[in-house]
Fold:
Amino acid sequence: MSGEDATPALRLIGADEPSASRFLRETPEMRAVAAANRASADAADALTDTDARLLFARRVSDALEGGRAAILPAPRRDNLRKLAVRLGMTDFDASLVTAIVQDAARRGEEIESDPVKGRLSLVRPARKAVSNDLVMRVAASLLLGAMLLIALVRWVVR
Structure:
């Protein structure tokens, strides 16, 4: 027996398939995740300077104490939550943005960096805050309507 005959022939399972390996084939789930990642990266570019999520993130970043410890004292957290509500965000979304900012501070990332903006873009955009002017106009209209109704009822009853 020669040395070549004693060596067993090794082969890769699935090597004859068109794709390199059956384990590396892309599944529909993998394509969906890749598409979501691309959409998130595109959304990070769409995060404008006037976006409530970015504005709130900057305020949270300014309020953090302790450097990389990224501590946010309770009174500041409460004030920031109130600001978030005025910006049209929910409490939950404000908490998400706060967590993203604290995580970025602990990693040493800047708020304006693409990875942080990408994570911020995953948070639901703020709804448009109803302006106080609109609320006042509606309230004045309702009050005027009620006064006219009362005057009409009194005139008819006489």
Observations:
- Residues 63 and 72 are 7 Å apart (CA to CA).
- The chain has seven helices and no strands.
